[in-house]
Amino acid sequence: MATIHKRTGASGAVTYQVKVRRAGHPALSRSFPTKALAEQWATEHEAQIARGSMVDPAAARAVSMRALFDRYLSEVTPRKKGSDQERYVLLKLAGSKLAEFSPGTLTAAAVREWRDERLREVAPATVNRGLAVLSHVIEQARKEWGIELPANPVASVSRPRNARGRSRRLVGDEETRLLDACGGGRAGGAAYLRDVVLLAIETAMRRSELLALRWEDIYLERATARLHDSKNGEPRTVPLSQRARALLRGIRPADGAGLVWPNATGNGVRLAFKRATARAALPNLRFHDLRHEAASRFSEKGLNVMEAASVTGHKDLRMLKRYTHLDASKLAIKLG
């Protein structure tokens, strides 16, 4: 049952306070400048209570988005494979204007404003990752943490179109220059970097997969390596070329156990690779481009799409097609 009371303030301003009460539901109250607005609000909330879709806004307004970001970072993120990247995204969100809102006051308009500001600073793909994480945080709060909301405001925000996928390949003497710059510990390179880079080019393994590789899962006699914890969550067996096998034989320890590169970290490889590309005068080359290079070489060597996908671990063949950029001069040789 709704009641509306007219109130006159000390300045003479008139407001209309509406209260909605119903057994089994918390009392709701709000003030409006006109009686018509008060009646409209009362009608809408009485209908929501009747439908059983009434949401108590108290909990959603009692906590800040920053608190939700912190809780998600401590409770949910550590369980994910991409925890390092997600941690960075959450810290950016926690330092933004969005953190000042509560879940109950965060609007799609505020999210759009954040999106547009970020697009002036970073690539669309980075903004989309931020929107995805923001949406996940809100859904976690709604489903698991007792924060009742009528809707997720991120669902009403358009995602920017991602830029075209990179097609960077190694051309000319770039591979030689890159490997020389990695240096096996010489010329400022990390001791393991050259081997990691070479194996990436030969196998299309991701950086995380390479660093998780163990000697117990490398079978040189069968020319394969077993990956138990890939990005898509499924194990796969990777064939090893002669070049890859020669590399691994050369660095295999006597006991043949443990991590292949026990002292390497993802961030360490990233920084060492960045320094190596600077020394080799390849400033636009990223470590992930080596996976593109390997996938393209598989196709040029005659592997069909399904065979290449079994090596790279792609479930979506359209994504594999984007990763594969064939050298037209080599295709011309095949055509005769």
What does this structure look like?
This protein has 336 residues and is mainly alpha-helical. The chain folds into three domains: 2-54; 65-156; 174-335, hpI Integrase, Chain A (Orthogonal Bundle), CATH 1.10.443.10. It is built from 15 helices and six strands. The protein has helices at residues 35-51, 57-61, 65-75, 83-94, 108-119, 124-144, 174-182, 193-203, 207-211, 242-251, 266-279, 289-300, 305-312, 317-323, 328-335; strands spanning 2-8, 14-22, 25-32, 218-219, 224-227, 236-239. The protein has a three-stranded antiparallel β-sheet with strand order 1-2-3, with helices on one face. Strand 5 (224-227) and strand 6 (236-239) form a beta hairpin. Helix 4 crosses helix 6, helix 7 packs antiparallel against helix 8 and helix 8 (193-203) packs across helix 12. The longest helix has 21 residues, at 124-144. It is elongated and about 85 Å long. The termini are far apart. 26% of the residues are buried. Mean pLDDT is 82; it is low at 185-189.
